[in-house]
Amino acid sequence: MSNVSRLCHAKSMVTVNGSFPGPTLYAREGDRVVVTVTNRAAHNVTIHWHGLKQRRNGWADGPAYVTQCPIRPGGSYVYDFNVTGQRGTLWWHAHIAWLRATVHGAIVVLPARGVPYPFPKPDAEAEIILGEWWHADVEAVEEQGRMLGMAPNTSDAHTINGKPGPLFPCSEKHTYALEVQWGRTYLLRIVNAAVNDELFFSIAGHIMTVVEIDATYTKPLTASTIHLSPGQTTNVLVRADRRPGRYFMAVKPFNDVPVPADNKTATAILQYAGVPASVLPAAPQLMPDANGTGFVAAFHDRLRSLNSARYPAAVPLAVDRHLLYTIGLNIDPCASCPNGSRLAASLNNITFVMPRVALLQAHYGGLRGVFAADFPDRPPARFNYTGAPLTAGLGTSPGTRLSRVAYNASVELVLQDTSLLSVESHPFHLHGYNFFVVGRGAGNFDPSRDPAKYNLVDPPERNTVGVPAGGWAAIRFRADNPGIWFLHCHLEVHTSWGLKMAFLVEDGDGPDESVVPPPKDLPEC
């Protein structure tokens, strides 16, 4: 626990090694990484290494009650994993309740020695972590929402590297500044570590060139503003070639539906060397409207995998398994809630119930009764998914249900938003895999027409995809990583309501096609 002050408010909160955000983890492609996590807080905790595939080694993945039991107060656990076939910017965060609001940091995986970037080498690099700040304890915020059966309170500010910037009170010590030398090029590794908000990011007077998303290289894409859903990362090149001065870096939320959100703008400063701090920063350039749906769709439609000889886009062209998962916001009965009901969320009308034994441990040990491997490939009923909002029949079926997938099967998953209660955008993260976003669109997915529009040549490769409000996203991946892998919304409020499930990917027949044995210090539930 650390005492931290922002916006003239001080509080005690969970941190890693006393810092907020936590320390950056640096590695090279091919490294073995060993991290000892000791829990000195009063909360149970786990750490997830977001975007690292953990090949055959789900024991190091981190989601509580999915691949491991939590690390109890006073306990320790050693995360031991290899960084194989990956390079770029990822991040780590707590993966239990809302602790990731304060327990998070960047992961920088450099290319193997002697391997250059597939873009001009930058003169310097910096990590830019976008987040949120609550005056209250985040666990208390979540608990209050749960007890009331309602959405929890929104954050009080956004942050850039843990600091809200000079547009907020008491900001003298709480503004991040990045000093640059005129004429040099900088690689900014940008992480959206926000708990619930999609974010726009821009730098006054400067153009960014996107060269990587979610630790996969892209064709260069120039933009004055970029968009990131929670969980996503973006690397951009920025050349310091403007008139020497001080320029605002700005972050503001994207929210295209009428639901409560923190609509405040956080700022940091791009500071040219030799310019006095007394110089007023250039104002943030005009960013898209908060409900800039068109901008967001156009930005993501322009993203393309690099698809070079060294970094090919290995898109599965034939599909063994077609899945359609509908995303719903629901209302379930709640005897203890003031109005007799609570908000819930579901995939295919199933609200996921977290077990009290880790799913991977139950699967590996043959423990029965913990889960059922019968998650449906399609919703229980067809309807006009994105038509007029539905206000009746909003209950769900609770259950701990997994989808069993054959080893090495090629999978296409269409994530379809619905108008149950309201349409809303949803970022989904798949553990253990990257996938290709082969298509996305507005309205209802049409299986007879939309696949003809897929990009099967150079689609963006990600680990977290944004499903547009009132729309759909189609992803493809090859199930070549055995184990149990979480799929969940990366808006923590919806995850806590049950918007999640897991895949059980079976072992293959080869010697390197099965889950490795668990470590001896695996925590017990």
Automatic annotation (TrEMBL):
Main location: secreted
Subcellular location, record wording: Secreted, Extracellular space, Apoplast
EC number: 1.10.3.2
Pfam family, one: Cu-oxidase_3
Details of cofactor binding: Binds 4 Cu cations per monomer.
Residues covered by the Plastocyanin-like domain: 2-111, 128-274, 375-508
Major enzyme class: oxidoreductase
Entry's Gene Ontology cellular component terms: apoplast
Coiled coil residues, start to end: none
Top-level taxon of the source organism: Eukaryota
SUPFAM superfamilies reported in the protein's UniProt record: Cupredoxins
InterPro entries named among the record's database cross-references: Cu-oxidase-like_N, Cu-oxidase_2nd, Cu-oxidase_C, Cu-oxidase_fam, Cu_oxidase_CS, Cu_oxidase_Cu_BS, Cupredoxin, CuRO_1_LCC
Signal peptide (UniProt feature, chain positions): none
Keyword Transcription recorded: no
Catalyzed reaction equations: 4 hydroquinone + O2 = 4 benzosemiquinone + 2 H2O
Keyword tags: Apoplast, Copper, Lignin degradation, Metal-binding, Oxidoreductase, Repeat, Secreted
One function term, GO molecular function aspect: hydroquinone:oxygen oxidoreductase activity
GO BP term, pick one: lignin catabolic process
Cofactor(s) named in the record: Cu cation
PANTHER family, alphabetized: LACCASE-2, MULTI-COPPER OXIDASE
Chain's role: Lignin degradation and detoxification of lignin-derived products.
Family: Belongs to the multicopper oxidase family.
This protein's name: Laccase
Organism of provenance: Panicum hallii var. hallii
